[in-house]
Amino acid sequence: MSDRFVPLAFEEIPPDDMRARAAAFRDEMQRRRSVRDFSDRPVDRAIIEDGLRAAGAAPSGANKQPWHFVVVSDPALKRAIRTAAEEEERAFYEDRAPQEWLDALAPLGTDPNKPFLEQAPYLIAIFAENYGRGPDGTKEKHYYTTESVGIATGMLITALHHAGLATLTHTPSPMRFLEEVLERPENERAFLLLVVGYPDEEATVPAIDKKPLDAIATFR
Ligand code: IYR
Predict the structure, then answer these.
(1) Atom 7 of ligand 1 has which residue's CA nearest to it?
(2) Does 3.40.109.10 match the CATH number of domain 49-201?
Protein backbone atom coordinates (compact mmCIF):
# COMPACT_ATOMS: atom_id res chain seq x y z
CA MET A 1 0.00 0.00 0.00
CA SER A 2 2.70 2.43 1.04
CA ASP A 3 6.33 2.89 0.10
CA ARG A 4 6.79 5.33 2.95
CA PHE A 5 8.05 4.62 6.41
CA VAL A 6 6.86 6.31 9.59
CA PRO A 7 8.23 6.16 13.13
CA LEU A 8 7.15 3.13 15.16
CA ALA A 9 4.71 4.12 17.90
CA PHE A 10 6.36 1.80 20.43
CA GLU A 11 5.38 2.24 24.05
CA GLU A 12 8.21 1.17 26.33
CA ILE A 13 6.94 -0.43 29.53
CA PRO A 14 9.10 -0.60 32.68
CA PRO A 15 10.34 -4.18 33.28
CA ASP A 16 8.37 -4.67 36.53
CA ASP A 17 5.19 -3.59 34.79
CA MET A 18 6.02 -5.89 31.89
CA ARG A 19 6.23 -8.88 34.20
CA ALA A 20 3.01 -7.92 35.97
CA ARG A 21 1.20 -7.39 32.68
CA ALA A 22 2.46 -10.68 31.24
CA ALA A 23 1.29 -12.57 34.33
CA ALA A 24 -2.09 -10.81 34.44
CA PHE A 25 -2.69 -11.45 30.74
CA ARG A 26 -1.67 -15.09 31.16
CA ASP A 27 -4.25 -15.45 33.95
CA GLU A 28 -6.87 -13.73 31.85
CA MET A 29 -6.24 -15.96 28.84
CA GLN A 30 -6.16 -19.07 31.02
CA ARG A 31 -9.72 -18.22 32.09
CA ARG A 32 -10.89 -18.36 28.45
CA ARG A 33 -13.08 -21.37 27.75
CA SER A 34 -14.97 -22.53 24.70
CA VAL A 35 -18.61 -22.14 25.67
CA ARG A 36 -21.52 -24.12 24.24
CA ASP A 37 -24.34 -22.88 26.47
CA PHE A 38 -25.19 -19.32 25.45
CA SER A 39 -27.64 -16.80 26.88
CA ASP A 40 -29.84 -14.82 24.50
CA ARG A 41 -28.88 -11.62 26.35
CA PRO A 42 -28.17 -8.89 23.83
CA VAL A 43 -24.61 -7.73 23.31
CA ASP A 44 -23.64 -4.17 22.48
CA ARG A 45 -22.71 -4.11 18.81
CA ALA A 46 -19.90 -1.61 19.56
CA ILE A 47 -18.04 -4.43 21.38
CA ILE A 48 -18.27 -6.64 18.32
CA GLU A 49 -17.11 -3.80 16.08
CA ASP A 50 -14.07 -3.07 18.26
CA GLY A 51 -13.27 -6.80 18.44
CA LEU A 52 -13.29 -6.87 14.65
CA ARG A 53 -11.08 -3.78 14.48
CA ALA A 54 -8.61 -5.54 16.77
CA ALA A 55 -8.73 -8.65 14.54
CA GLY A 56 -8.22 -6.46 11.49
CA ALA A 57 -4.93 -5.27 12.99
CA ALA A 58 -3.49 -8.80 12.63
CA PRO A 59 -0.33 -9.31 10.59
CA SER A 60 -0.95 -10.93 7.20
CA GLY A 61 1.04 -12.13 4.20
CA ALA A 62 2.18 -9.02 2.28
CA ASN A 63 -0.40 -7.10 4.35
CA LYS A 64 -3.16 -8.35 2.04
CA GLN A 65 -5.57 -8.77 4.98
CA PRO A 66 -7.22 -11.75 3.29
CA TRP A 67 -10.21 -12.01 5.61
CA HIS A 68 -13.83 -11.06 5.70
CA PHE A 69 -16.11 -11.21 8.74
CA VAL A 70 -19.87 -11.56 8.33
CA VAL A 71 -21.65 -10.65 11.58
CA VAL A 72 -24.98 -12.44 11.75
CA SER A 73 -27.68 -11.36 14.22
CA ASP A 74 -30.76 -11.75 12.01
CA PRO A 75 -32.85 -14.58 13.53
CA ALA A 76 -33.88 -15.98 10.13
CA LEU A 77 -30.25 -16.18 9.00
CA LYS A 78 -29.19 -17.75 12.29
CA ARG A 79 -31.95 -20.33 11.87
CA ALA A 80 -30.81 -21.08 8.30
CA ILE A 81 -27.23 -21.52 9.51
CA ARG A 82 -28.34 -23.77 12.37
CA THR A 83 -30.44 -25.95 10.06
CA ALA A 84 -27.62 -26.40 7.54
CA ALA A 85 -24.97 -26.91 10.24
CA GLU A 86 -27.02 -29.55 12.06
CA GLU A 87 -27.54 -31.42 8.81
CA GLU A 88 -23.77 -31.60 8.26
CA GLU A 89 -23.17 -32.45 11.90
CA ARG A 90 -25.68 -35.30 11.84
CA ALA A 91 -23.88 -36.78 8.84
CA PHE A 92 -20.59 -36.26 10.68
CA TYR A 93 -21.62 -37.91 13.94
CA GLU A 94 -23.69 -40.68 12.35
CA ASP A 95 -21.53 -41.68 9.33
CA ARG A 96 -18.54 -39.62 8.41
CA ALA A 97 -16.51 -39.41 11.61
CA PRO A 98 -14.15 -42.33 12.23
CA GLN A 99 -14.46 -43.90 15.70
CA GLU A 100 -11.07 -42.49 16.69
CA TRP A 101 -12.34 -38.94 16.09
CA LEU A 102 -15.57 -39.59 18.00
CA ASP A 103 -13.50 -40.97 20.89
CA ALA A 104 -11.35 -37.83 20.87
CA LEU A 105 -14.47 -35.65 21.06
CA ALA A 106 -16.15 -37.66 23.83
CA PRO A 107 -14.66 -35.53 26.68
CA LEU A 108 -16.23 -32.42 25.12
CA GLY A 109 -19.73 -33.89 25.17
CA THR A 110 -20.59 -32.51 21.73
CA ASP A 111 -23.37 -33.86 19.53
CA PRO A 112 -25.18 -32.85 16.32
CA ASN A 113 -27.54 -30.44 18.08
CA LYS A 114 -26.39 -26.84 17.90
CA PRO A 115 -29.01 -24.71 19.69
CA PHE A 116 -26.35 -22.07 20.41
CA LEU A 117 -26.44 -21.14 16.72
CA GLU A 118 -29.85 -19.55 17.37
CA GLN A 119 -29.50 -18.67 21.04
CA ALA A 120 -26.32 -16.60 20.90
CA PRO A 121 -26.85 -12.98 19.81
CA TYR A 122 -24.03 -13.03 17.25
CA LEU A 123 -22.49 -15.52 14.87
CA ILE A 124 -19.37 -14.23 13.15
CA ALA A 125 -18.71 -16.20 9.98
CA ILE A 126 -15.05 -15.81 9.07
CA PHE A 127 -14.08 -16.11 5.43
CA ALA A 128 -10.64 -16.43 3.86
CA GLU A 129 -10.09 -14.65 0.57
CA ASN A 130 -8.22 -16.95 -1.80
CA TYR A 131 -7.37 -13.89 -3.86
CA GLY A 132 -8.29 -10.23 -3.81
CA ARG A 133 -9.36 -7.61 -6.30
CA GLY A 134 -7.31 -4.51 -7.07
CA PRO A 135 -8.96 -1.09 -7.40
CA ASP A 136 -9.57 -1.77 -11.13
CA GLY A 137 -11.00 -5.23 -10.46
CA THR A 138 -7.90 -7.23 -11.47
CA LYS A 139 -7.12 -10.37 -9.48
CA GLU A 140 -4.57 -9.82 -6.74
CA LYS A 141 -2.60 -12.72 -5.27
CA HIS A 142 -2.86 -13.43 -1.54
CA TYR A 143 -0.10 -15.06 0.49
CA TYR A 144 -0.19 -17.29 3.57
CA THR A 145 -3.94 -16.91 3.60
CA THR A 146 -4.72 -19.67 6.10
CA GLU A 147 -2.04 -18.51 8.52
CA SER A 148 -3.18 -14.90 8.22
CA VAL A 149 -6.86 -15.65 8.81
CA GLY A 150 -5.95 -17.98 11.68
CA ILE A 151 -3.97 -15.21 13.39
CA ALA A 152 -6.81 -12.68 12.89
CA THR A 153 -9.28 -15.20 14.29
CA GLY A 154 -7.09 -15.73 17.36
CA MET A 155 -6.92 -11.99 17.90
CA LEU A 156 -10.71 -11.73 17.57
CA ILE A 157 -11.25 -14.47 20.15
CA THR A 158 -8.76 -12.76 22.46
CA ALA A 159 -10.36 -9.32 22.00
CA LEU A 160 -13.87 -10.58 22.69
CA HIS A 161 -12.72 -12.56 25.72
CA HIS A 162 -10.89 -9.47 27.02
CA ALA A 163 -14.09 -7.44 26.58
CA GLY A 164 -16.01 -9.94 28.72
CA LEU A 165 -17.75 -12.15 26.16
CA ALA A 166 -17.75 -15.89 25.61
CA THR A 167 -17.00 -17.48 22.24
CA LEU A 168 -17.09 -20.86 20.58
CA THR A 169 -14.99 -21.75 17.56
CA HIS A 170 -17.45 -23.85 15.62
CA THR A 171 -16.30 -25.76 12.57
CA PRO A 172 -19.21 -27.60 10.99
CA SER A 173 -17.55 -29.77 8.42
CA PRO A 174 -17.83 -29.18 5.52
CA MET A 175 -18.92 -25.56 5.92
CA ARG A 176 -19.31 -24.51 2.31
CA PHE A 177 -23.01 -23.94 3.13
CA LEU A 178 -21.95 -20.70 4.86
CA GLU A 179 -20.76 -19.35 1.52
CA GLU A 180 -24.20 -20.02 0.04
CA VAL A 181 -26.39 -18.93 2.96
CA LEU A 182 -24.40 -15.70 3.35
CA GLU A 183 -24.05 -15.14 -0.43
CA ARG A 184 -20.30 -14.68 -0.43
CA PRO A 185 -18.33 -13.91 -3.59
CA GLU A 186 -16.47 -16.75 -5.26
CA ASN A 187 -13.01 -15.71 -3.98
CA GLU A 188 -14.07 -16.44 -0.38
CA ARG A 189 -14.10 -19.76 1.44
CA ALA A 190 -15.63 -20.32 4.83
CA PHE A 191 -12.89 -20.60 7.47
CA LEU A 192 -14.69 -20.77 10.82
CA LEU A 193 -17.91 -19.83 12.56
CA LEU A 194 -17.40 -17.92 15.82
CA VAL A 195 -20.36 -17.99 18.19
CA VAL A 196 -20.38 -14.91 20.45
CA GLY A 197 -22.41 -13.84 23.47
CA TYR A 198 -22.82 -14.13 27.21
CA PRO A 199 -22.71 -17.63 28.63
CA ASP A 200 -25.97 -19.04 29.94
CA GLU A 201 -26.14 -18.67 33.73
CA GLU A 202 -26.16 -22.44 34.04
CA ALA A 203 -23.32 -22.97 31.56
CA THR A 204 -20.89 -25.77 32.28
CA VAL A 205 -17.67 -26.62 30.47
CA PRO A 206 -15.78 -29.89 30.20
CA ALA A 207 -13.19 -30.56 32.89
CA ILE A 208 -10.20 -30.57 30.58
CA ASP A 209 -6.69 -29.17 31.06
CA LYS A 210 -4.16 -27.28 29.03
CA LYS A 211 -0.65 -28.69 28.70
CA PRO A 212 1.97 -27.12 31.01
CA LEU A 213 4.71 -24.92 29.61
CA ASP A 214 7.37 -27.62 29.54
CA ALA A 215 5.13 -29.78 27.36
CA ILE A 216 4.49 -27.06 24.77
CA ALA A 217 7.78 -25.17 24.65
CA THR A 218 11.49 -25.90 24.38
CA PHE A 219 14.11 -23.33 25.27
CA ARG A 220 17.60 -23.87 23.88
N1 IYR B 1 -17.80 -30.09 14.15
C2 IYR B 1 -18.33 -31.01 15.13
C3 IYR B 1 -17.31 -31.92 15.70
C4 IYR B 1 -16.21 -31.30 16.46
C5 IYR B 1 -14.93 -31.45 16.00
C6 IYR B 1 -13.86 -30.99 16.73
I7 IYR B 1 -11.99 -31.35 16.08
C8 IYR B 1 -14.08 -30.30 17.95
O9 IYR B 1 -12.99 -29.82 18.69
C10 IYR B 1 -15.37 -30.15 18.41
C11 IYR B 1 -16.42 -30.65 17.67
C12 IYR B 1 -19.12 -30.25 16.21
O13 IYR B 1 -19.06 -29.02 16.25
O14 IYR B 1 -19.79 -30.89 17.00
Answers:
(1) 105
(2) yes
* Helix, strand, coil share of the chain (percent; to 5): 45, 15, 40
Ligand 1 mutation target, pool 102, 108, 111, 177, most atoms within 8 A of CB:
108
Q: Is 171 helix (H, G, I), strand (E, B) or coil?
A: coil
pLDDT per residue as tens digits for the range 109-168: 999 999 999 999 999 999 999 999 989 999 999 999 999 999 999 999 999 999 999 999
Which ligand 1 atom is nearest residue 172's CA? 1
Element (H, E) at 72: strand 67-72
Write the Ramachandran bin of 174: left for phi over 0, alpha for psi from -120 to 50, otherwise beta: beta
The phi and psi torsions of 78 (rounded to 5 degrees) equal -60, -40
Q: Where are the domains of the chain?
A: 49-201
| Ligand 1 closest atom vs CA 170 | 13
Ligand 1 binding pocket includes 175 (Cβ within 6 Å): no
Q: Under a CB-based contact definition with an 8 Å cutoff, are residues 206 and 109 in contact?
A: yes
Give the whole-angstrom CA distance, residue 11 versus residue 21.
Answer: 14
